[in-house]
Structures are given as C-alpha cells and as structure tokens.
Amino acid sequence: MTEQQLHQMAGLHIASQFFYRFLHQAPDAELIQALQGDGDVCLLDHWPVELNDEDQQALAIMKAGLDTHLSELSQDYADLFVGPNALLAAPWGSVYLTEDQANCGQPTLQVKAFYREYGVEIDTGENEPDDHIGLMFAFLAHLTEQGLQAAGNGGEAEPWITAAKAFLEHHILTWAPRFLTIMGENARSDFYKGGSLLCKATLDSFAELTGAQFKIVKLYR
Q: How is domain 3-210 classified at the architecture level of CATH?
C-alpha cells in the first residue's frame, strides 16, 4: 500500500472508533468535551478523514450541535436508537434487510459469523444483535487496526483491506445509507443530523480505500 493509503486507513480507524461511540452509546459530558477540545480548538476541526466541500458542511452542522443541552441530545439519541417508543432510526441491519423487520434475523447471524471468522466476539455486556451499526464500526476499527499493525511490522495490510471490502459490501453498504438518511430526517438536533452526514462521508471514504461497491438490494424500511 502507498503512504497515502496508509494515512487514509489511519484516519478511517480513528473515525470508526468515533462512530462506534457516537452510534452505540448515549452522549455524555465526556464525549461533548472531547469533541469541543480545549479552549477554542474543536476536535471536529481536525477530522481525520479527508472531506470534499459539501461534506465539510456536515462537520459545521455537527459542531453547531455541540451547544445543545446534553439532556436534549440524550433524548434525541433515545428517540432515534433506543426507545421506549417506536425507534425513529432503528440501528440494526436486519430491520432493513428482512421482510418482517425484526432483530436477530439471518443478516444478524451472517454478521456474527463474519466477526468470528476474524477472531472477534462482540460482548458489550448486553444481549443485543451483532448487526448494530455502532458495533459494525467497532469491527471496522479492528480491521483497520490490524492492517496498520501489519504494515508497521513490515507485513502486508492488503488482507485486512480485503476483509473490510467484503464486510462493507455484504453487511454495511447494503442498508446503512438508508439508515443514515432516516436518521438525518428524524434527528431533532444538529449533532445527530450532522453526524448522519459525516457517517455517510466516512463510508464513502471506506469504499474508496477498499474498492467496495454499494450494492442495490431490496430494503423493507
């Protein structure tokens, strides 16, 4: 791999770690403080993935959302992803890929099998489906980390890029764009509206790095 590709992979690794936290866990003061940074320097001003001019707007929208009261952000997160009412943006692949729109369908089992193929067992301490978009970003963070470590040790990063390509094509890019559109349409805060756009841009960058294709499949939501 070229130095430029390794740099892109490193940026995507950081972005994947962020989106695991952003999409899988409710916001708290620590997250907001980390994004705001010290003084007038905001971490969103130093996003690790290169963006075009249009995608830069996602950062601006998200940065504006940092001023939203934490209780409002927490409520937005709950309404989108947790409940107790009907979720405005269900974060599991099976909901979009199966006709009954239920959790823990065949897509969930296929994702779990993919994790296991690469020696990963997801255990968050909760009984939850493995095809949660946040957990999928955690797995992408693992694959990119392994690729970077291999390259740093004089080995080849390509096998890990190939794994990421297969995972993206078969398990994320089929439904995640639809999920992110629904998320952006239903989010009340700029924080989550901007986050949905930034996540789309990150998936585009992953597709560029790995050569993954956005396959058209039948979606049920």
A: Orthogonal Bundle (1.10)
C-alpha distances in Å from residue 74, one per residue of 19, 53, 58, 82, 137: 16, 29, 20, 10, 21
The domains of the chain are located at 3-210
Residue 142 token pair: 């693992």
CA angle 149, 203, 100 (to 5 degrees): 115
Q: Residue 40: which pLDDT band, with cuts at 50, 70 and 90?
A: low
pLDDT in tens, 3-34: 999 999 999 999 999 999 999 999 999 999 88
Residue type at position 182: I
Contact indicator for 139, 182 with CB cutoff of 8 Å:
no
Task: Give 65's contacts (C-beta < 8 A, 6+ positions apart).
Answer: 73, 189, 190, 191, 192, 193, 194
CA distance 219 to 164: 22
Classified as helix, coil or strand, 207 is: helix
Which of 49, 46, 179, 167 lies closest to 113 in space, CA to CA? 167
Tallying the residues shown for the chain, one arrives at: 221
Nearest to 25 by CA among 84, 101, 99, 78: 78
41-83 pLDDT, tens digit each: 677 888 999 999 889 999 999 999 999 999 999 999 999 999 8
| Non-local CB neighbours of 17 within 8 Å, separated by 6+ positions | 137, 138, 141
